[in-house]
Design brief:
This protein is an alpha+beta fold. It is 55% helix and 17% strand.
C-alpha cells in the first residue's frame, strides 16, 4: 500500500471517529437533559400536596392555597374570606 492511500485512509478514519464521538456526546447530553426534566416533574408533583383549611376544613392543593404567615408559621386557606375570618377580619401578611 502506498503512503498516499494510507494517508487518505487515516483521514477518513479520523473523520469517522470525530462524527461518532459527536453523536455519542449529543446522545449523552440529551439523556441528561431528559433525566433533569423527569426529576423536576417528580419534584413538582411531590410539592402539590393537599392541605386543610383551618377555618372550614376543606382540603386544597398547597400551590393553589391562600397563604398567611403569622407568628413564624404558615397557614393555608381555600379563599380570602376564610383567611380573613381566621385573622379576625383584618388583612393578613400574604406570602
Amino acid at each position: 500500500m502506498n503512503p498516499l492511500r494510507l494517508l487518505v485512509l487515516g483521514g477518513l478514519l479520523y473523520i469517522f471517529w470525530r462524527m461518532l464521538r459527536r453523536q455519542l456526546r449529543d446522545k449523552i447530553q440529551t439523556e441528561l437533559l431528559r433525566q433533569q426534566q423527569d426529576e423536576q416533574k417528580k419534584q413538582e408533583s411531590a410539592e402539590d400536596v393537599l392541605v386543610e383549611d383551618p377555618v372550614c376544613g376543606v382540603l386544597i392543593p398547597k400551590q393553589q392555597a391562600v397563604r398567611l404567615r403569622q407568628d413564624g408559621r404558615i397557614y393555608y386557606f381555600c379563599s380570602e374570606s376564610c383567611c380573613d375570618a381566621f385573622n379576625g377580619g383584618t388583612k393578613g401578611q400574604d406570602e
